[in-house]
Amino acid sequence: MSKKTVLITGASRGIGKAILESFNNEYFIVGTGTSESSVQSILENINSMNIEGDSFKLDLGDRDSIKELTSLLDSKEIYPDILINNAGITRDNIMLRMQEDEWDNVIDVHLNGQYLLIKSFIKKMVKNRWGRIINISSTSAVLGNKGQANYAAAKAGIEAMSRSLARELGSRNINVNCVAPGFIETDMTKEISAGNEDFLASQIPLGRLGKPNEIAEVVNFLASDQANYITGQTIHVNGGLYM
Predict the structure, then answer these.
(1) Separation between Cα atoms, residue 155 and residue 33, nearest integer Å
(2) pLDDT 10s per residue in the chain (243 long)?
(3) Residue 231 burial class via C-beta count within 10 angstroms: exposed 0-12, middle 13-18, buried 19 and up
(4) 4-184+211-237: what fold?
(5) Residue 202: other Cβ atoms inside 10 A
(6) How far apart, in whole angstroms, are the C-alpha atoms of residue 32 and residue 53?
(7) 235: helix, coil or strand?
(8) Exposure check for the chain: N or C terminus, fewer CB within 10 A?
(9) H-assigned helices in the chain
(10) Following DSSP, what letter does each residue of 69-122 receive, concatenated?
């Protein structure tokens, strides 16, 4: 396959969908979703863009699901050159009330799942002596957030893991970076009441929430040859919420 292959997890909506839509027909696009309906939605989106690609089911919290995906891609000779780890979950609760499964689920999806996915795909990148790994983090990793000790810990772990991988893989021309969004207009933030949204916007120097495409463009840049000399970095895209 002459085109570079991009794999985007959580590509059915929000930031993941915007990332998918930021790529053109110079790439072969693979998107994943957690349900059959989301997988179908991703495929329909790919087809509507008139680009080559496919979509598959993936639950990063289920090791068997990860094994099934990697085996399926291998059988189809689909080897990601660019891996974009976007899929994630939240299970918010203050620490006094946080249940063990709320902690474990977030860590499993964000850290353990990404570890397994990255490990599955870097062998081919190393062989090809080229690759891009882009992990979606969050301002929570540096600012913290009430009720999100699990999410903040997972995202901080992703950033630390990415820096270590950048050192391990740099000699093989594999760049590893993070993009850390602030408050972005997605289905998740739509649940915020108007009053709270106004308060959040007041904490941001640019005075508004970000848009998914504003994250996607940065991810797309990091995937391009223009970013050849950028690795081990966390790029903050948050309107000045964190400086």
Answers:
(1) 20
(2) 579 999 999 999 999 999 999 999 999 999 999 999 999 999 999 999 999 999 999 999 999 999 999 999 999 999 999 999 999 999 999 999 999 999 999 999 999 999 999 999 999 999 999 999 999 999 999 999 999 999 999 999 999 999 999 999 999 999 999 999 999 998 766 665 556 778 888 899 999 999 999 999 999 999 999 999 999 999 999 999 999
(3) buried
(4) Rossmann fold (3.40.50)
(5) 8
(6) 11
(7) strand
(8) C
(9) 14-21, 36-48, 63-75, 100-107, 113-128, 140-143, 149-169, 187-190, 194-202, 212-223
(10) HHHHHHHTT---SEEEE---------TTT--HHHHHHHHIIIIIHHHHHHHHHH
Q: Could you say which DSSP state residue 224 is in?
A: S
Residue tagged active-site, from 27, 151, 229, 242: 151
The 8-class DSSP code of residue 35 comes to S
Looking up tokens 């990601």 gives 80
Query: Is the separation of the CB atoms in 21 and 42 below 8 Å?
Result: no
User: Residue length, the chain?
Assistant: 243
Give domain limits for the chain.
4-184+211-237
State the Cα–Cα distance between residues 144 and 23, nearest whole angstrom: 32
- Of the candidates 99, 89, 195, 175, the one whose C-alpha atom is nearest the C-alpha of residue 130 is 175
Instruction: For residue 151, indicate whether it is catalytic.
Output: yes
Q: Alpha-carbon torsion 185, 14, 236, 142, what sign?
A: positive
Q: To which residue do tokens 């913290």 refer?
A: 144
Residue identified by tokens 């594999």 is 174
- 20: tokens are 């998918």
Q: Which residues contact 22 (CB under 8 A, 6 or more apart)?
A: 213, 216, 217, 219, 220
